[in-house]
Write a structure and sequence with these properties.
Blueprint (H helix, E strand, L loop, with lengths): L1 H29 L15 H17 L1 H20 L5 H17 L8 E9 L2 E9 L6 E9 L4 E6 L15 E3 L5 E3 H5 L4 E5 L6 H12 L1 H6 L3 E6 L3 H11 L5 E3 L4 H6 L2 E2 L8 E2 L1 E6 L5 E7 L8 H9 L2
Parallel strand pairs: 7-8, 8-9
Antiparallel strand pairs: 1-2, 2-3, 3-4, 5-6, 7-12, 10-11, 12-13
Helix pairs in contact: 1-2, 1-4, 2-3, 2-4
Length: 316
Amino acid sequence: MLDSALQFGRHLFHTQIVVQSLTFAIKTSVRRQRPDHSNNRAFPSGHASTTFAAATVLDRHYGWRVAVPAYVMASYVSASRLRANRHVLSDVMFGAAVGVWTGRAVPRRHTRAGYSWTPTPVPGGVAVFVTRIQPGLQSSAVALRLTFGKNHMEFKRGDATMSVEVGAKAPDFTLPNQDREPVTLSEQVKRGPVVLAFFPAAFSGTCTTEMCTFRDSAATLNKVGATVLGVSVDTFFALKAWGDAQKLNFPLLSDFNKDVMAKYGVVNPDMIGLKGIAKRSIFVIDRGGVVRHREVLEDARNEPNYDTITQTLATL
């Protein structure tokens, strides 16, 4: 009983963080004026999204008998926002839909066949990168993107092919390096620009050439205070052996569960029979966490444009 209550508490807390982040991202993209002209953060209703998310988590944990009063309360709160002239009906309805979707999606992260997903602000909207992880099976990933124009809204779904664009905030993450120490992107960019380099596999020819090129460019990178972070699906054991053999002087991160690759949209569905490894990709990220250069190579035999990386770093 206690374990069930603790799990419910974790799900509720996590759901509220995600739904508020998602609601805020949409509000700042749409910037719809409130009916009372108090501000331009009307769409969607945050009160509706948070209360309906909580009701949905109750429904998933304890069933509809417990959830009905919560849904009634959520409806009452939403209606009160209409009566107070803070929202129009579409604000409330979309907010409720965001809350229900979040309440149903987030708890699945903690189930056996879990979902790892992250809402990420992008120019003109919000992208949600979703990875489904099943024990013993290949992880699958999709990218969902919601963009807003002046008089329209567009929704797209892709097979993890939507990448983080130049000018967008780089999705944050924490991954273990080759020494099994956690490395967090948001902490790294505080020290200087980051060259985030996804590569298919350790010990392969082109990947070795690429990483050794970054190793040999240490003097140039140090001039601008930049750090290279190599990322692949290899275990940290393999990355440690490879890094030591090549004397690589920067962190090699293990994205074994493919969560970060999905966030950045660089999952390669099939490379000569190897499914779900990283496309060779470069993201140059400034101190503010914004992507300033992006290069995603479809042919893993090709190397990135090192001159463009250097030129971009020189402007930061």
